[in-house]
Design a protein that fits this description.
The protein is mostly helical. It has one domain (3-311). It is built from 15 helices and 2 strands. The chain has a two-stranded antiparallel ribbon. Helix 5 packs antiparallel against helix 6. The longest helix has 33 residues, at 3-35. It is globular and about 60 Å long. The model has no long low-confidence stretch (mean pLDDT 89). Pfam families: Alpha-E (PF04168). It comes from Stenotrophomonas ginsengisoli. This is DUF403 domain-containing protein. Residues 1-311 form the DUF403 domain.
């Protein structure tokens, strides 16, 4: 397979996962905001910080006192100047797909075009009318449909392995970023509020829900939602397919099926070791965002090793 085609398959899979996870996170936050009492401040800014686009947003909208939550939502969904927005990620996925249409089922292109028409034709109207929940639900459904089509209709050749590689890496990265957003404080209760602990639990429940993990959390952890329990489940669970450890382990299972690239395997083992050896109780009591930042740096280094090992020879 040409390295250009492999690179495009890898990034197409990454962009699809990025779109789905961003829609899940924004949808869960939108629902959480509706459920909170008025005395609690809800802030979407941590989402922009975890995606490293907060400085760009402030540059466009002014200081913190001048922006609104609706502006953050529009920036996260529709802004083409935001490289992490739903619209930007989807434009990138669609552009990549054009160059690999000959190796992908026609149904993939049809579904991607349906998503394109939804975002371009109705996205702004749905946000303005308070129907963002419907928009996010539709994007998530189409993302799951695409995942199903890829798994059911694509031959298990080397191209499929690059699709798996991209999906595993992106899901590990997005799970760490969603945890980071929750740990950074989407909810700000007044200091001393007797329900402050309950609000924190509600915030972590929203993180679990954004990753479709609440039911599996209850089934396997059999505990009330807390920071340490949620961190343990989303970081280290062996069976939940969106946990960071599960995704990185799946990536390691793909690497032997690809051309030999020792640097990729070494870097993958480094980040797996970091996640496996983390102490969720200690992290929850201190600052989980620092660990998430370290994981994201290791994931970025792994992406660099993949690019050098497979696409830039």
């Amino acid at each position: 397979m040409l390295s250009r085609v492999a690179d495009n398959l890898y990034w197409f899979s990454r962009y699809l996962r990025r779109v789905e996870n961003t829609a899940r996170l924004l949808g869960a936050c939108s629902q959480l905001r509706l459920d909170l009492p008025r005395q609690v401040t809800f802030d979407l800014m941590p989402i922009l910080r975890t995606l490293s686009v907060d400085a760009l947003f402030v540059q466009q909208h002014g200081s913190e006192a001048q922006y609104s939550q609706s502006q953050i939502m529009a920036f996260s969904v529709l802004s083409l100047e935001n490289p992490s927005s739903l619209r930007s990620s989807f434009h990138n996925a669609r552009s990549v797909l054009r160059s690999i249409r000959d190796v992908m089922p026609q149904a993939i292109w049809d579904t991607v075009n349906d998503m394109h028409q939804l975002l371009e034709g109705q996205g702004a109207q749905m946000l303005e009318r308070g129907r963002e929940g419907d928009l996010f639900a539709r994007i998530v459904d189409d993302g799951l449909k695409l995942s199903g089509l890829l798994n059911a209709n694509v031959s298990r050749d080397i191209g499929f392995q690059f699709l798996r590689l991209g999906a595993s890496l992106e899901q590990a990265d997005m799970t760490s970023r969603i945890i980071d957003a929750g740990a950074s404080g989407l909810i700000r209760a007044r200091h001393g509020d007797e329900l402050e602990k309950a609000y924190r639990s509600l915030q972590w429940a929203a993180v679990l829900s954004s990753l479709a993990g609440m039911q599996m959390f209850r089934r396997h952890m059999r505990r009330q939602v807390s920071a340490e329990a949620a961190l343990s489940f989303l970081l280290q669970d062996n069976d939940f397919p969106r946990s960071v450890y599960f995704c990185l382990s799946r990536l390691l299972s793909v690497v032997p099926r690809l051309p030999h690239a020792p640097a990729v395997e070494r870097q993958a083992h480094r980040v797996v070791g970091l996640v496996r050896n983390a102490d969720p109780v200690w992290q929850a009591a201190n600052n989980p965002a620092l660990l998430m930042d370290e994981i994201q740096l290791h994931v970025a280094a792994l992406d660099q090793a993949i690019a050098e090992g497979y696409f830039r020879q």
